[in-house]
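Quick question, first post here. What does this chain look like in 3D?
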Amino acid sequence: MSSIVKSTIDDLLARMEPDTSPATIDVGNPVTAFCELVAHDGIETGVWSCTAGGWTIESYGVNEAMVMLAGHLRLTATDGTVTDVHPGDLFFIPKGWSGRWDTMEDMQKAYVIVP
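> Answer (accepted):
Ran it through. Tokens below.
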């Protein structure tokens, strides 16, 4: 890739497509969607949304930095540490993290994934 790729958050949110919901849903019936800005050399950027619901994560597959755009997310690590994420928060989940992902209020995030 030799050129800069640019978009607005609003444009990406308007172009979202259904995403595969997590296989381990145990609370609610969350619906997920995403729009990828770019994927290059194993790095991916874009936006993602999820309606209310929750699931257990055995081992997060990637390193992911995120900015919460809307909603409320609660992450509970297997050691019991609870992290509530709200609009404007910047947060990071490391590869291998395990715990619970609970979307408390329909959410949107911008993300950067590094394998």
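The first helix runs from residue 9 to 14.
Residues 9-114 form a domain with the Jelly Rolls fold (CATH 2.60.120.10).
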